[in-house]
Amino acid sequence: MEKNPMKYALIALPLALGLAACSSKDEPDEGTTVNIDATTDEGATVKITADGKTGNVGFKVPGFDTNIRLPKKLLDDSNFDIDGVKLYPGSTVDTVNITANDKGGKDEQTDVRIGFTSPADPAKVSDWFKDQFGKQSIKADGDAAKLTGTTKDGEAFTIELTEKDGKTAGLVNIRK
User: Looking at the whole model, is its pTM more than 0.70?
Assistant: First the structure.
C-alpha cells in the first residue's frame, strides 16, 4: 500500500459513484457497508460511509460534505482480491472498513478490514485460500479458523473464519 491515506478515499469515491449506475429492480435487501476514515499530514479528515441497509452514502472531505442515496449492491468474489487471490467463489462482501493516518509525512498505520460471507464451511474456504495464495507464491499458514500471511508488498494479513448457519463468516484484516 502506498503511503497516502487519501488514496483510499479516491478509490472509494469512484466505486461508490459507480454503484449509482448499477440500479436494479432486483436490488438486495442489504448491500455492503463501507467506512473509510483517513487523516492527512495536514490534519484534514476524510470520511466516506455507505450504509448497506439503506443505500445512503456520505462524503466528508475538506470543502465538501454531502449525503446521497445510491442503489445497494453487494460486492462479491469477482471484485475483491489480495495480490490476485479473490474471495472463495460465491462469496459476498458485507463490510469494508479502512482507517488510515498520515502524520509527519509518513503513513503511521493503515488498517483494512473486510467482512464477507462464503457459501462453504470454514475448512473448505481455508483450504481454498491456501491453494490460491500458493498459486500466487504467497505463503498463508493456519487452519480452518485463522490464516496468516504477508502480501507481496510486505503487509501482514489475517483471515479469520467461523461457521455460521452452514456457511462461513470471514474477516480479512490487512495492516501496514
Answer: no
